[in-house]
Amino acid sequence: QAQEIRGFLHYPGWLLPGEQRQMLADLRAVVAAAPLVTPVTPSGRPMSVRMSAAGRFGWVSDRRGYRYAETHPQGTPWPAIPDSILAVWRAVSGSARQPECCLINFYDAGARMGLHQDRDEADFGEPVVSISLGDDGLFRIGNESRGGATQSLWLRSGDVLVMGGPARLRHHGIDRIAPGTSMLLPKGGRLNLTLRVVT
Ligand code: MD3
Ligand code: FE
């Protein structure tokens, strides 16, 4: 069922519709305790993606910099990662460790995420697992160094993507979402969950 694209493993439609609804219900409880926030880059620019997290760590950004933090900006610990999400990690990660962060990214119709690398984690030998829910997102995959050719891929609701091995340090981003392509979120938009080992 997996398709390889530039060293990433793509599992289209990994989650059944009922599993997606269960995960969404679990996420509603998470964001009720740890509300989505608009991170600000160190240069002071608000990001278009809104973020929260579950697990021991969340990823936060403000004028002081970006980092993994053990508390939400409001000062509270992050909620536990729901079992419905941990089950995906166990099934596809191939890792002996438990994820320490489930970063939650919410994209509304105008949101995007520029090409970047994920390198705030201590062990690049551990994979990152991404789960997409809601509207389609146009994912772009680049190279380990800046520049060069890129390849694009639509990520749809229920898709799972595993980034491991040499692909772990590739640049990647979301160019845009396609509003109205999913009925999962009543008000539309796209949720992306990334499971990470941080320490
Ligand atoms: C490749 N999120 O949160 S998920 C991020 O859809 C992030 O919200 C995007 O990039 C999103 O950092 C893309 C796919 C993804 C996630 C993490 C990766 C690809 C990755 C880490 C390393 C390499
Ligand atoms: Fe990333």
Polypeptide structure, described:
Its cofactor is Fe(2+). Substrate binds at residues 59, 66-68, 120, 146. This protein is mainly β and 199 residues long. It has a domain at 3-21 and 82-196: Alpha-ketoglutarate-dependent dioxygenase AlkB-like (Jelly Rolls). The protein has two helices and 13 strands; from the N terminus they run ββαβββαββββββββ. The strands form three sheets. A seven-stranded antiparallel β-sheet has the order 1-2-11-8-13-6-3, covered by helices on one side. A four-stranded antiparallel β-sheet has the order 7-12-9-10, with no helix packed on it. A two-stranded antiparallel ribbon has the order 4-5. β1 and β2 form a beta hairpin. The longest helix is centred in the N-terminal third of the chain and has 17 residues, at 17-33. The protein starts with a strand and ends with a strand. The model has no long low-confidence stretch (mean pLDDT 97). Bound molecules: N-(carboxycarbonyl)-S-(naphthalen-2-ylmethyl)-L-cysteine and fe (iii) ion. Fe (iii) ion is lined by residues 116, 118, 172.
Quick recap:
InterPro entries: Alkb, AlkB-like, AlkB-like_sf, Oxoglu/Fe-dep_dioxygenase_dom. This protein is mainly beta and 199 residues long.
Order of helices and strands: EEHEEEHEEEEEEEE
Number of strands: 13
List of distinct ligands in this structure: N-(carboxycarbonyl)-S-(naphthalen-2-ylmethyl)-L-cysteine, fe (iii) ion
Q: β content, as a range?
A: 25-35%
The amount of helix comes to: 10-25%
- Per CATH, the superfamily of one domain is Alpha-ketoglutarate-dependent dioxygenase AlkB-like
Organism: Paenirhodobacter ferrireducens
Cofactor: Fe(2+)
Pfam families: 2OG-FeII_Oxy_2 (PF13532)
InterPro entries: Alkb (IPR004574), AlkB-like (IPR027450), AlkB-like_sf (IPR037151), Oxoglu/Fe-dep_dioxygenase_dom (IPR005123)
